[in-house]
Amino acid sequence: MRGWWQEITGLVLPVACAGCGCPRTPLCDACARTLHGRPPRRVRPTPEPAGLPEVHAAAPYADAVRAVLLAHKERGALGLARPLGVALASAVRAAAGPRGAWGEGAGAGPLLLVPLPSARRAVRARGHDSVRRIASAAAGELRRSGTVAWAVPVLRQCRAVADQSGLGARERLANMAGALEVGAGSGWFPPDGCLVLVDDLMTTGASLTEAARAVRAAFAGARGRTPQVKAAVVAASPASFEINRN
């Protein structure tokens, strides 16, 4: 009900740019360019957790980008899912790279976008699952550009985790360790597919590291092999861009 009401009120109430407050537009051209107007880059947190997959981000988490992400996630500005999806799609393309580079059997299949799960209490409080919504928008954007892509929300939390906002890098790793699992088995992943974990934001990399562990463990148990895993996010901390060591 809350999600429906948010969509209706977005149509009838005056809007302002979520990034800068410019009137009569949910996202102005300047803020849109800040969000998805530059080439995505590989990002690395400091310290970089062991097991973190290669991560690409569309933009630094600052200023207009930060405001847009928070408006979508916390204030229910659901119309921003489309431009956020465009940004995430560009990061997914960069993360996937040349399909042949994934190795044998991973060149012709679809791109599978695996969103990191949100805590149930957060979804209830916000009225929507922001990462899942952005992942679906990104998959749609990729399909419109000719790439076969699907959002597959197969990860789930298998135990409660603490709020990460007040935790340091090491504490976040401990908080997330063993917290995720693949809940739908391994049949969702075709042999020639490419798997890209997706999230709205990377800070320390703890959540992406745990998600990568969970999907690798699911494959090792079900198929006896470990898939290659990449990751893409809408935004990452500016410092993770500055120390990029490509």
Keywords:
disordered N terminus, ComF/GntX_DNA_util-trans, single chain, 9 helices, ComF family protein, PRTase-like, alpha/beta
Task: Provide an overview of this structure.
There is one protein chain. This protein is of the alpha/beta class and 246 residues long. It has one domain (2-40, 48-242). The chain is 40% helix and 17% strand. It contains nine helices and eight strands. The chain has a six-stranded mixed beta sheet, sandwiched between helices. Helix 4 (81-96) crosses helix 6 (130-144) and helix 7 runs parallel beside helix 8. It starts with a helix and ends with a helix. The relative contact order is 0.19. Mean pLDDT is 85; it is low at 1-13. This is ComF family protein.
What can be said about this structure in brief?
This is ComF family protein. By secondary structure, the chain is an alpha/beta fold.
Write the topology of this structure.
Layout: H1 2-12, H2 29-36, E1 41-43, E2 54-60, H3 63-73, H4 81-96, E3 111-115, H5 120-126, H6 130-144, E4 149-151, E5 155-157, H7 169-176, E6 180-182, E7 194-202, H8 206-222, E8 229-236, H9 238-242
Helix pairs in contact: 4-6, 7-8
**Which regions have little confidence, pLDDT < 50, spanning 5+ residues?**
1-13
Strand arrangement in the largest pleated sheet: 1-2-8-7-3-4
Strand content range: 15-25%
- In total, the number of domains comes to 1
Number of helices: 9
Describe the sheet with the most strands. 6 strands, mixed
- Distance N terminus to C terminus? 46 Å
Backbone shape: globular
Number of strands: 8
Provide the residue-averaged pLDDT.
85
Helix content class? 25-40%
Name the structural class: alpha/beta
Radius of gyration: 17 Å
Give me the strand/helix succession: HHEEHHEHHEEHEEHEH
